[in-house]
Amino acid sequence: MRIALTGANSSVGMNLLNHANQHGDLQFIAGVRSEKARESLPQSEQIEGRCIDYRDGATLAKQLEGADCVVHLAGILIESSTTKYQEANVDATRVVVEAAKILGVRHLVFISVVGANASSTNSYFRSKGQAEELVANSGLSATIIRTPILLGPGTAGANALIGSAKNSKPKALGGGLYKMRPLDIDDLNTAIINACKRQAPACALYELVGPTAIRYCDLINMTARALGASTDIEVGSISITVSKFIAKISSTLRGGGFTPTVIEVITQDEVVAHNAVEELGVSLTPLTTTIEKILEQQ
Ligand SMILES: NC(=O)c1ccc[n+]([C@@H]2O[C@H](COP(=O)([O-])OP(=O)(O)OC[C@H]3O[C@@H](n4cnc5c(N)ncnc54)[C@H](OP(=O)(O)O)[C@@H]3O)[C@@H](O)[C@H]2O)c1
């Protein structure tokens, strides 16, 4: 089976491709937006890097020719002056759906986020919810996986966590009292591969989160202990209200970056109604193991 990845140079894509040899029966078409990104992809006989764009479905279908399944990973949390949620999260998904239909793929996998909702007042969650609707209404055999913060090599979440844990006086928004369900990136990739192999007949929507619900301040301490700290460190508090105010001004001036929307996303409690470990065939990695892995791989 040939699986095409969009956003193959994302942290999820790179991690999947770095473990391609664990799936000897699979070939990957790794879709990226630039030659530079193509050159950065892991070298393997199983991986064919291709430059793709999202201008229309027919063009993308040509660029992904030969794919049996498409895994749509491209998407953003942080907007920039040139890339907004509408383009990166909604319009790109529309084009991927069109391409998947033209290609007649057997299955489409879309990575969404816990909290996605097309009616949300938060523009990030809304864009991911709108993208989900495009996939769900496509008529394609598809799997949507809503994920929480991902921990793995190169993920933004892991980088921020390690930075805080190495700091003797870390600070977090609201003291880091919000609860997370961090998911090991390898577990997400197992779910993605299983979804491609199982090929649900219609569109299946799942939430997949890590095994432990933990406050961010406690996660920082858990990571600090794994780094050798003998006692708990006190996590200072950064006011969420003040941060949103500053973020509003700076993001307006810069045309993107850290916005009140992003602050709302990262400080929300990650709660799910049902953790789809069985449906996605995943055996969750214990959080302590995930932390050891990200520290080893940094
Ligand atoms: N990381 C997490 O904790 C987390 C949590 C929940 C959901 N997710 C979702 O999981 C997926 C992968 O996340 P990630 O953190 O691995 O991603 P990432 O490392 O931030 O990479 C983002 C990818 O999106 C591409 N991209 C950016 N703007 C684009 C645009 N306008 N059109 C098309 N592609 C664009 C980037 O390509 P270029 O390099 O060419 O810009 C890159 O390949 C995303 O859909 C994300 O929303 C991630």
Uncertain residue ranges: none
Number of helices: 11
| Arrangement of strands in the largest sheet | 3-2-1-4-5-6-11
Q: How confident overall, as mean pLDDT?
A: 97
CATH homolog superfamily of the domain at 2-151 and 184-209 and 271-282:
NAD(P)-binding Rossmann-like Domain
Could you state the order of secondary-structure elements as H and E?
EHEHEHEHEHEEHEEEHEEHEHHH
CATH fold-level assignment of the domain at 2-151 and 184-209 and 271-282 = Rossmann fold
Oligomer: single chain
CATH architecture verdict of the domain at 2-151 and 184-209 and 271-282: 3-Layer(aba) Sandwich
Bound molecules: NADP nicotinamide-adenine-dinucleotide phosphate
Portion in strands? 15-25%
The CATH class assignment of the domain at 2-151 and 184-209 and 271-282 is: Alpha Beta
Measure the end-to-end span: 32 Å
Which structural category do the helix and sheet elements fall into? alpha/beta
Description of the structure:
This protein has 298 residues and is α/β, with parallel strands linked by helices. The protein has a domain at 2-151 and 184-209 and 271-282: NAD(P)-binding Rossmann-like Domain (Rossmann fold, 3-Layer(aba) Sandwich). It contains eleven helices and 13 strands. The strands form four sheets. It has a seven-stranded parallel beta sheet, with helices on both faces. Strands 7-10 form a two-stranded parallel sheet. Helix 5 (123-136) links the parallel strand 5 (107-113) and strand 6. The radius of gyration is 19 Å and the shape is globular. It starts with a strand and ends with a helix. The protein binds NADP nicotinamide-adenine-dinucleotide phosphate. Residues 7, 9-12, 33-34, 37, 54, 73-76, 83, 87-88, 92, 111, 113, 147, 149-150, 155-157 line the site of NADP nicotinamide-adenine-dinucleotide phosphate (NAP).
